[in-house]
Amino acid sequence: MKKAINLFVALALGASVPAFVACSPEDKDTPAPSISSEELVKDVAYSVEADKNDPNVIHLKSLVKGATPCWETPQGRSQASEITMTLPFAGEYTVRFGVTTGAGLVWGEPYTFTLETNKFEALSDAIWTDLAGGVDENGVGNPKTWVPMDMAYLPYKGTAVVGYMNPDDVLNDGSNITDITLDNWNYNWDPGFQDWLIPATDPYLDSEMTLSLDAAKGCVAEIKRVDANGVTTVTGGFNLNTADSKRPVISFNDCEMLHAAWGDNVCANYSQDLKILTVNPYVLQIATMRTNDEGPWWIVWNFVAKDVRDGKVEIPAEGPEFVETKPVVEPKYDDLATELFTISGDDASYVATKTTLLLDEETPYDLIWWNGASGEWEWIGGYGSSWAPVYGGAGDFALTLNKSGKAELESAEGGDAAGFTISGNKIIFDKEITLLSTGNVAIKGTEFTVMKCSADDNEVVFGIPVEKDATGAWNKYLCAKMTIKPISGGQSGPLVLAVNNANIPANDLFYVNADKYIRVMLYNPWAGKDDSAFAIDPTKLKLKKGQTIKVRFTISGIDWISTPKAVLCAQNANAYGWDAAAYAASPFVTDLNTTGETELTFTNETGSTYNFYGSDAIEISIDLDGTATSNDISGASVNITSVTIE
C-alpha cells in the first residue's frame, strides 16, 4: 500500500522512539486471544504522562504483560514498551494503543490529549530551519519551498530529478558499506535528464513542496505536483525524527513526498521513514527504496530550494562541505587506428589488416557515465531493465573493419557496407549505420566515440552521446559493447608455460617465512634475480580479465601430521594478502595433497588484463605451522608438473 496509516497530527522531535515498524499478528510473545478492544484503555492497558519538568515531553508506557504492544503516535508506529516524545507545539495530539494476540492485532480506541504551551527551543537544531524555514521566538514560521533539481548545484551531488544508489555499497567505492548517514553516501548512477526517464521538458519540474512550521497547525506539508494531467495540490503534515542526528528520517501524513508520476509504480513508500541524505539551505535529498520488479535499490529524489533555483540565493563557492568534482575527460588514444587493429593472442600481439568485432552476447549494450567524484567512466549496469530491454540479435552481429577504410556490417537489422575514417577518439562512417535496435533503444549514427579499446581485455566499445553535464560536456553515452573475433587457426586450449624445476632450490626460492609458511617463488620482481633464474618465464605471466593460472605440483620430504592449506598468493592482484590473510580471504585456497599432486588456481578478478612481469610477485604458500612434525624443511623438495593459463 502506498498510503501509510494516518498518524493524526504532524510533529514530534524524536527523543527515544525506535525505528517505526509495522505491527502484525506474527510478532513474538503473542498471548492467547484473551484481550478485547474494550480493555485497551488508558491507565489500564497503557499510560500517557507528561514529564514532571517539561509538559511538552510525553511518556508512553505499556501496562500489558506478556503481549507485544503496538502504538500509533504523532511520531509514527512503534512496538516499544516505553516511548518518550518531545512535542514542540501546543495543540491536540492523539495516540492509539494495541497489542498482538493469537487472533491478530487488537486496537483500543484513540486517546487524545492537549498541550497548552509551545516549546520553540525544541526546534533549535539547524535542520529544522534548513528543512522547513524554522520559527521565530513567537512561533511564526518562514515556509521553505523545495522544487525538483533541474541541473547540477555544485558542490552537491545530483544533476537532475533522481539518482540511484546501490543498497549494498552506498559509498560506491567497493567498501560494501550499507549504512547511510547524513552527507556520507554516493550515487552509483546519476542519470541526468533522459527522454525515457525524465526529460528536461517534463512538467514535473514545475512542481513544488512547501514545508512550514506553524504554532497552531504544527508541521505542514503542501505538495503541488504538476504532470501531464495538470496540477494536483495536497496539504498534509510531516514529522522529522532526529533521534539519531546522523540518520534523520522524515515521514508524511495525509500526503506523500513530492515525486514524479512515473515513480508511483517504482517505490511503494513515499510517506514513512524516508531517509534524509542531504539537507542544508540549498539542497534536499531524500531516499526511498525501489519496490518494483527491478529489485531493491535506493531511489534518491533531489530537490533544490526555490530561491536558489530562481537566483535569489547563491550557494557558497567554498566551505567545509565543498565536494570537489573532476571535469569530464574523454577517452584518449595515442594511435586509435593501430589499437583498433591490434589482435592479442595468448603469447603475442600483432597489428592486423582486418578485424571483426562481435557484440558481447551477455551485455551487448549499456550506458556509461562520468563519475565526477572518482574521475572515471563507469558502467550503469542497467542492461535488462525496463529502460534497457534485452537484445536478442547479438549473435547475428559482426562488424568487420578493413585498414583500407571499408566496413562490412552484418546484424539482425540487416547488412550494410560503408567507408570509415578514424579521427582522435572517434570512428566516422560515410553513412548512417545501426549497430543495434531494441524497444526504444537504438545505437545508430555516422560518428561513434570509442569509449574503450583494449586488445588485451578483448573489449571495444562504441558510444553515442546522450547527456551533458552542467558545464556542457557530454558525460553519458549509450554504448555497444563488443569483443574481438579471434583469428582462425590460432592456438586453442590453454597456454602451457614451460617449467624449469632446477630453478626451485631449497635455499632462497623455497623457504620458510618466520618458520610458519613454505613459499615457492614462481616469480618475484623484488628478488634481485635475472628472469632466467625463475622456474617459469615471467614475461608470460599475463592474465587477461577473468583468465586463470593453474599450477600443479608435488612436495616431498616433510612428515605431515595434519593436512595444511595451500594457496597462490600475489602481492597486489585481487588484494587477498599473503599466507594467513590469504587462507582466510582468498576463494582459491585448497587442501594440500600430502601424498600426491596438488592443483592451485588464481583468477584475475581485477576487471582488466593483469601483467605480473616487472610489477608483482606470485608464489605458492603452504601453511607449515602445526601441520608437520618439524619446521625444518632442509630435506624437502618441490616439483612443479605444469603451469597453464586459460
Largest sheet: 8 strands, antiparallel, barrel
- Computed over alpha carbons, the radius of gyration is 32 Å
- Determine the strand fraction and express it as a percent band: 35-45%
Structural class computed from helices and strand pairing: mainly beta
Give the termini separation: 52 Å
Q: What is the average of the pLDDT values?
A: 84
> How many helices?
4
Tell how many strands the DSSP assignment holds.
Answer: 41
Structural features, described:
By secondary structure, this protein is mainly β. Helix content is 3%, strand content 40%. The strands form 8 sheets. The chain has an 8-stranded antiparallel beta barrel with strand order 10-12-13-14-15-16-17-18.
Task: Describe the secondary structure blueprint for this structure.
Elements: E1 13-14, E2 46-50, E3 57-62, E4 68-73, E5 76-78, E6 82-86, E7 91-101, E8 104-107, E9 111-115, H1 126-132, E10 144-148, E11 162-165, E12 208-214, E13 218-227, E14 230-241, E15 249-253, E16 274-279, E17 283-289, E18 298-305, H2 306-309, H3 336-340, E19 342-344, E20 349-351, E21 354-359, E22 365-371, E23 376-379, E24 398-402, E25 406-410, E26 416-423, E27 426-438, E28 441-454, E29 459-468, E30 474-484, E31 495-497, E32 510-513, E33 517-523, E34 542-543, E35 548-556, E36 565-570, H4 580-585, E37 590-591, E38 598-603, E39 610-611, E40 618-623, E41 637-645
Antiparallel strand pairs: 1-6, 2-3, 3-6, 4-5, 4-7, 7-8, 7-9, 10-12, 10-18, 11-18, 12-13, 13-14, 14-15, 15-16, 16-17, 17-18, 19-20, 21-24, 21-30, 22-23, 22-30, 24-25, 25-26, 26-27, 27-28, 28-29, 29-30, 31-41, 32-33, 33-40, 34-39, 35-38, 35-41, 36-37, 36-40
